[in-house]
Amino acid sequence: MSYVISEECVSCGACAPECPTQAITEGDDKYVIDPEKCIECGACADVCPVGAPHQP
Ligand code: SF4
Ligand code: SF4
After folding, report:
1. HSE-up of 47 (CA within 13 Å, CB side)?
2. Residue with CA at minimum distance from ligand 2 atom 1
3. pLDDT tens figures, 4-39
4. How far is the CA of 50 from the centre of ligand 1 (A)?
5. N or C: which end of the chain has fewer CB within 10 A?
6. CA atoms 41, 10, 4, 36: torsion sign
7. What 3-state class would DSSP assign to 5?
8. CATH no. for residue 20?
9. 6 phi/psi in degrees, rounded to 5
10. How many domains does the chain have?
């Protein structure tokens, strides 16, 4: 399953440049992950200060 970003996201932007497949973009009120691009590496979760990226 692709990672998803929860409502905890504070839109700091730290995760996007860490994603090897450019799956993360800024959404309307939080960052979002394109499930078609996510390879489940966990890099976004490692850098997120609030633990928003997770696997459902
Ligand atoms: Fe990108 Fe890896 Fe996070 Fe998926 S788990 S969105 S591939 S950084
Ligand atoms: Fe949101 Fe975490 Fe990404 Fe920052 S690192 S934009 S809080 S998901």
Report:
1. 12
2. 9
3. 999 999 999 999 999 999 999 999 999 999 999 999
4. 16
5. C
6. negative
7. strand
8. 3.30.70.20
9. -80, 175
10. 1
Q: State which residues form the domain around 10.
A: 4-54
Q: Is the CB of 44 under 6 A from ligand 1?
A: yes
Q: Which amino acid is at 34?
A: D
Is 40 within 8 Å of 49 (Cβ atoms)? Answer: no
What own/partner pairs with CB < 8 Å and gap ≥ 24 does 49-53 have?
49/10, 49/12, 49/14, 50/8, 50/9, 50/10, 51/8, 52/5, 52/6, 52/7, 52/8, 52/9, 52/10, 53/3, 53/4, 53/5, 53/6, 53/15
Cα of 54 to ligand 2 centre, how many Å? 11
